[in-house]
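Now produce a polypeptide, keeping tokens residue-aligned:
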Amino acid sequence: MIRTLTEWEFVDRMTRESFSYEGSAALFNYLEELEGDCGEQIEFDPVSLRCTWAEYRTVAECCDDYGDDIKNLWDLQQNTQVLEFLGGIIINTEF
């Protein structure tokens, strides 16, 4: 069973999962585009999304978490999906 969410419902729920409004909106837009590209609906699972995606205010903050292997935005983009938005980035942590 899949329930269709509006952007507002998605953002409202994800802000309760420690994402910013802007970060939640960026993730919503990415997932909606991904659905269109693959032709399949994505099940909304906020816990899974919180575990798979991490939000950072700066690239430097993210690089600090990943040590010497990741030094800049280019390194991040070569290793994982990066969503940039005004006020930060969201990365797929499964890399």
